[in-house]
# Entry
Amino acid sequence: MTVSIERADFEEPALGGFLQDHLDDLAPTTPAESRHALDIAALQLPTVRLWVAREGSVIVGTAALAGLEPGHEELKSMRTDPARRGEGIASRMLDHLIADARARGVRRISLETGSVDFFAPARALYRKAGFVSCPPFGAYTTDPNSTFMTRAL
# Structure
């Protein structure tokens, strides 16, 4: 089957569970004060655009962009179903978000991810996509549990 990417439908029952699984995955990896994933309510704010990757009717990935300031957005809630990791879903999602941001005139995308080994694949994906290390941005502060990255578009 083919994986499609579309804007999230917050009325879809499976979406809440998939997003909660993301938060649950992070819980044992990072102290609470260093977890910056958005919950489903925050993902519905008008400044956030959430996409869902699906194969047929099954959600296999999510990713969002959240506005920081004009021309600068933050990558949020990037997750691939653990059973589907390594299939290129995250790369396709990231390419989709970059294209969407570029089409809307966004000039920079930044992100925060974890610094521990659990997040090494994510950091490698972002580096491969042209993201580079940067200092904390927006409301973030220096945190040994966080890695900050950015990419100009």
